[in-house]
Write a structure and sequence with these properties.
Layout (H helix, E strand, L loop, with lengths): L13 E5 L9 E5 L11 E6 L4 E6 L13 E5 L9 E5 L11 E6 L4 E6 L13 E5 L9 E5 L11 E4 L8 E4 H25 L1
């Protein structure tokens, strides 16, 4: 992303700048005899203040700021997608829980409260004494992880971008990313071939 070419303006003129509107775009500057208007970049949102009658730029994820009346709560709805805007609003009641696109909402039946946690981590669990806290990673890119309790040792679960190597290489099996697994398998195969050749040569 480029800021564009610099400009030299005449005395009394304003140097105005328009930021790039996309990741591969270039911004540009120009001269104006009037005050420069407000231009926001592609990761910002333009917010208007009705009290001061001015515009300003704020991060899209945060949304436009808001001023609430005395006794009201400032509530925030996070962006529902990567390129979406956050949103702030006033409420006379406590703000509800809103989770971001990369989060999952978890309910605690003990406290009767909701909270947000990373989708890949999943909702936390509290297990009885002696139980194991087991975790199943997300099976796909947009899926949630899952945690659960087990009185037995947790089995091995691999993520969507991993493969389980057989337990003759790692005790109980092990999860390795695909490109590393191919390297390990190739190396192991070469070592086995070398071992067989060495045994045959010593006979």
């Amino acid at each position: 992303m480029s800021t564009g070419c610099p400009v030299t303006c005449a005395a009394g003129e304003q140097v105005c700048h328009v930021p790039a509107t996309c990741d591969t775009c270039s911004g540009y500057s120009y001269c104006s005899s009037y005050s420069c208007p407000v231009y926001c970049s592609n990761d910002e949102v333009m917010c208007h203040d009705a009290t001061t009658m001015t515009d300003s730029c704020h991060p899209k994820s945060a949304g436009c700021p808001i001023t609430c009346s005395t006794g009201e709560h400032v509530c925030t709805t996070p962006p529902s997608c990567e390129t979406c805007d956050g949103y702030n609003w006033c409420s006379s009641h406590p703000c509800p829980v809103y989770c971001a696109a990369h989060e999952v909402m978890c309910h605690d039946p003990m406290t009767m409260t909701d909270s947000c946690h990373n989708k890949t981590a999943g909702c936390p669990v509290t297990c009885p004494a002696g139980d194991h806290v087991c975790h199943s990673p997300p099976p796909c890119e947009n899926c949630d992880g899952y945690n659960w309790c087990s009185s037995y040792a947790c089995p091995v679960y691999c993520a969507a971008d991993e493969v389980m190597l057989p337990n003759h290489m790692f005790y109980g099996g092990a999860c390795v990313q695909y490109h590393l697994a191919r390297l390990v398998m190739a190396t192991t195969g070469a070592l086995h071939t070398l071992a067989r050749y060495t045994v045959q040569s010593t006979k």
